[in-house]
Structure formats: structure tokens, C-alpha cells
């Protein structure tokens, strides 16, 4: 048993009425403080996070180092391979603890450290050592991001009531996206050289480290109650053996995992968006900065819409809308090499990415009992990461054989499959719970 008077359960049974009532009262009392803490973390921490994970700076950095689309695809795959390897172990650790916040701080700190090392390696190394170090650290960022996603979403689902999640996620992502868009525009113009060399990218990553660290520090404001019930300790092997039963036990969750898989497979084209634009306009600081601004500004503009829509109608609606927007934006990207169309396409791709991310994260929180939350998050993160690992490698190889058009066409086919399943087979878990 861990502190705080929590009861250890073998089955994850619900807490007693008294325990649950006391827990709910604590959540309500501390909601203003916790709401503010999550908002600041999203505004600052996610700003730094976006600079690394947007499909602009890191792919452009790797391409300027190697001039190889295979390395660009491999770098993106390594990023997501890391997210595959850590969530199960992270969930096993979290579900037997009555508080998530200490683990969230530790994992978040390790993720920030990898971003710092990526910046330092770019400033101090050159040639092959610089490329090797970048790839290793990109993998490490993904590794700690996978565990961090489980921890932070488990914490979010624990202290923020269901009716408040969409608006909080929307407004914090809107403000954070706006800040990230401005930072990316300034970084492209002021930090990255006009000749498209790699000199300014490490400084962008250093700026990302500072912002992400400030966001992590804002979580010190949070007050997290002990949960009234935890599971008995289980090994990672026990978790792996229990995954099939958890997936088989809920047809709707299984359908959702299929949607996630197809959506992440469609991301095979993501690392090559900026390279496609660079064919006509170059990969100089101005191009990378403006298109990064478009991608991240769309995050700012659309997040409040996604959050409001999800709170009112459930997050199936923004999930479907984001898939439609992704397909339409890819068509726009292929339609013309004029910069205005590329800008519009990156706006749409950014809005689609933010809509999917918000929907996927918040839908997972609405399946099943709270005691299984960490494990559900781990399963979804592992499934997403597995497909996201393979897709960019396949995209890079296809680039060499068939070019951009084939990669983007297959990407749209996967997104269309996810859209069809979301429309015709997937039921909103919130609507199902209310109907019951």
C-alpha cells in the first residue's frame, strides 16, 4: 500500500462512496489552482514541445545535415519508436501509485534534458558525429515523451473534471500555439541563416528547452490528491499479457485503436511536407519560419474550436473534422507550388494535427474505469507510436522510388480509411455512457 490511505485492489474495483465523495470534494476545491497550472504548462511547455515536434524544424535540420530523405524519415521514425518503448513501463509504475505528479516531474525533466542535449550537440559537433548524436537524441526525446504522455494525461484526467477538459485543452493550446507560431516565425527569420545551413537550428532547440522547462516548472502550482484506490503491483510482463483482454473487452475502444492506427499511418507524409515546399522555395530560414508559423498558428486558431465542439458534442466530432481537414489540406499542398497555397495547406495541416491530438487524448480518458486509465493511455500511445515509427521509414523509401505524389496519395488513402471508420463504426464513448 502507498500513502494517503489508499486501498490496494487486485481488480481495480471502485472506491467506497465515502472515499469517492472525499476525492470529488478535493478535486472541486483545488480546481482553480489546478486549472491555472495546466493552462500555464500548455502555454509554455507545449510551446517548446511544438518547436521540436512540428514537421518543419527537425526534418529541415536533418535534411540540411545529410540531404537525405531517408535520414529525414528515419529521424521521424526514431522519434516515434521511442514513444513505443516507454508507455507500458510508465503505466505499470503509475497505476500502483496514489499520486502521479512526482513521476510527471521526473519524466518531464528527463525529456527537457534530451532537448538541451540536442541543442548542445548541434553547437559543439560537426559532420557524422553531429548526425549520429541528433538521431540518438531524437530517439531519446521520443522515449521520454511516450512515458510523459501517459503521466501527464493521467494527471489531467485525474484533476480536471470531464465537463472542463475540452475548453481547458482548447484555450491553453490556442494560447500556446499562438506563442509557438510567433516564436517559430522569429526563429526562422532571426536564427536560421538565409542560405539554408544548419547553423541556427541548435539555437531553436535551445529556445525550445527553455520554454519547455518553464512549462514544467508551472506544474509546481498543482495540488494532486491521493487516489482512493490503486491496483496491486504488477510486472511489465503482466501488463503486456493483459493488453489483449483489455482491447477485446471493448469493441468501441478496439475500433478507436484502428482509427488511431490508420491516422498515424497517414502521417508517413508529414516529414516531407516542408521538403516538398522547399523544392520550389528553398529551405532557407524565411521559408521554414513562415510555414512553421502557418502550421502552429492554425493550432492556435483551431484549438478553441475543437475544445468547444468536443465539450458540447463529444470528441468524436472534432476527430472526424480533423481527418476531413487533413485530406483537404494534402490536396491543397499538391495543387500548386505557389507560396500562398503552400501557406494555406500548412494552415490546414496544423489545424488537422491539433484536432486529432486533442480528440485522441481526450477520447481515451472517457473509456472504462479510472483505475485502468494509465494502461489505456499506454496501449493507445504504443499503438500510435508503432505505426508512426514504421510510416516515415516507408515514406522515405517510397520517396526514392516514386516521389512525393505517391507518398501523399497513400497518406490520404490511410486518412480516408480512418475517416470512414470514424463516421460509420465508431460511437462517441461519452454519448454511450450518458445513454446507459
Task: Write a structural description.
This protein has 436 residues and is an all-alpha fold. The protein has helices spanning 17-53, 57-66, 69-85, 87-94, 101-124, 127-159, 162-190, 201-218, 236-248, 251-266, 273-281, 285-313, 316-335, 339-364, 373-402, 404-424, 429-435, and strands spanning 7-9, 229-231. Strands 1-2 form a two-stranded parallel ribbon. Mean pLDDT is 80; it is low at 1-18.
Summarize the structure in short.
80% of the residues lie in helices and 1% in strands. The protein has 17 helices and two strands. It is globular.
Number of helices: 17
| Main sheet record | 2 strands, parallel
Give the overall silhouette: globular
Read across the widest sheet, the strand sequence of neighbours is 1-2
Unreliable sequence segments: 1-18
Distance between the termini: 34 Å
CA radius of gyration is 21 Å
Number of strands: 2
pLDDT averaged over residues? 80
- Specify the structural class: mainly alpha
Helix content: over 70%
Strand fraction equals under 5%
Secondary-structure element order, as H and E? Answer: EHHHHHHHHEHHHHHHHHH
Task: Write the SSE topology.
Elements: E1 7-9, H1 17-53, H2 57-66, H3 69-85, H4 87-94, H5 101-124, H6 127-159, H7 162-190, H8 201-218, E2 229-231, H9 236-248, H10 251-266, H11 273-281, H12 285-313, H13 316-335, H14 339-364, H15 373-402, H16 404-424, H17 429-435
Parallel strand pairs: 1-2
Keywords:
two-stranded parallel sheet; 2 strands
